[in-house]
What does this fold into?
Amino acid sequence: MNFIFIEGLRVDAWVGIHSRERVAPQTVEFDLSLGVPEAATLHDNIADTIDYAAVVEYIRAELAGRHFNLLETLGEFVAGLLCEKFAAPWVRIRLAKLGAIKGVRRLGVCIQRGKPESGAPGGMEGEE
It folds into this structure.
């Protein structure tokens, strides 16, 4: 299986349980890895892969009008979008709120869905 990645995607999202989090969107940063069909490397045709520009645009549009209490729920929602809308057979998402707690640069969750056939990309901190 081949993979594409999108790192450092920043999206303004409505997420949180505290009153201060309900008055304005927060910046959430995503690192995404998506499994893509091998046909993408064979045919050199965008129709055979996942269009990462379309992924970015779709995530931004979908999150603009939704509120999530938990970052975990927001991550599951995005994982579902990638699997369903873009037919990704495998996804790994790392998402983090930036500056949500004083003295903490980022806090977040990692979510993985599907099974990579082989050679899943690494590179996410805290994983072996």
Notes: Confidence is low (pLDDT under 50) at residues 124-128. The domain at 2-114 is CATH 3.30.1130.10 (GTP Cyclohydrolase I, domain 2). The helical segments are 39-43, 52-64, 71-84. Residues 94 and 123 are 11 Å apart (CA to CA).
